[in-house]
Write a structure and sequence with these properties.
heterodimer; A: about 120 residues; mainly alpha; about 80% helix; elongated; B: about 180 residues; Rna Polymerase Sigma Factor, Chain: A; Arc Repressor Mutant, subunit A; 2 domains; 9 helices; about 0% strand
């Protein structure tokens, strides 16, 4: 029992021998030495992505014979019965609306989470 | 609502949010600097330099923090590595043996306070025992966590804590309960 008391006493003294050290500018000194935030690299990444997309589009345009497939598709669409064109437009609209709703819902959830966190 | 360490780490990872990192520094600076002060035998300037190095290294390597341990444990490990590297450079890693310990302990010290004697006794322990005692008894880490911080086997940590405590008790016998 005495042994236990002595151990408790030593632990207590050890814990109390470590008082809180006030910041006194320590955090500010650390923050001043941090490398600059990654914003520049994000911008670089976005520029590379946009550049690649642009290049791919130009390449696709050239390979597809100057975009002739677009006019061919319009010709084929014009040859379709009116009812088919309406059905196609309706389905396209529905797909886009569903995608938009899904994106809006996921964004909404993200905002809700970040709001709750703060 | 106060953000947890994990939330702050996530902000640093995703947005490179330096304000979030600043909050992590504010939360842990006292413990890290305190540990380093004890390891450096109360060399405050050196301990604070090592403390800054610790947090800078933590920021640069924050992607390697996988959240398996507490953030503080991860920081202690970095702090201990910074200290060891610095000590190796200064060739101060040699521990003080029993004989030195007996000769250096002066019960007639000018400041007779218990806190002073405890600090002095701690600083006389060999590094491996001092670090184990500091982490487990002062900073409240489990033996397992201390083993990770010090990168040594669990059994060695237990032995070092036991030996360190025994030596402390012997040195502070005049202060202990009767």
């Amino acid at each position: 029992m005495e042994q236990v008391n002595q151990e408790d006493w030593l632990d207590k003294e050890l814990r109390e021998a470590a008082p809180y050290i006030h910041d006194e500018g320590f955090t500010a000194r650390v923050l001043r030495q941090l490398p600059p935030p990654r914003r520049s690299s994000d911008l670089l990444r976005a520029t590379i992505l946009l550049g690649m997309t642009f290049l791919a589009s130009v390449l696709a345009y050239i390979v597809s014979g100057g975009g002739r497939f677009v006019s061919n598709t319009f010709e084929r669409l014009a040859a379709l019965p009116v009812l088919w064109v309406f059905a196609l437009a309706l389905m396209t609209g529905l797909v886009i609306a569903a995608l938009g709703a899904a994106v809006a819902l996921s964004r909404g959830r993200g905002l809700e989470t970040s709001f709750l966190r703060t | 609502m106060e953000l947890t360490d994990a939330d702050l780490v996530a902000r640093v990872l995703v947005d490179d949010d330096q304000h979030a990192f600043g909050e992590l520094v504010r939360r842990h600076q006292s413990a890290v600097r305190g540990l380093l002060r004890q390891l450096t035998r109360t060399d405050v300037a050196l301990a604070d330099d090592l403390g800054q190095q610790t947090f800078l290294r933590a920021y640069k390597n924050i992607r390697s923090f996988r959240g398996e341990a507490r953030f503080s444990t991860w920081l202690y490990r970095i702090a201990y590595n910074c200290f060891r590297e610095d000590a190796r450079r200064r060739k101060e890693l040699v521990g003080i043996d029993e004989e030195q310990l007996q000769t250096q302990h002066d019960p007639q010290a000018t400041n007779p306070g218990l806190r002073h004697d405890l600090m002095r006794a701690l600083s006389l322990l060999p590094l491996n025992e001092r670090s184990a005692v500091l982490l487990c008894c002062q900073n409240g880490l489990s033996h397992d966590e201390a083993a990770r911080v010090l990168d040594i086997p669990l059994g060695t940590v237990k032995t070092n804590v036991l030996r360190g405590r025994e030596k402390l008790k012997r040195m502070l016998v005049e202060w202990g309960p009767n």
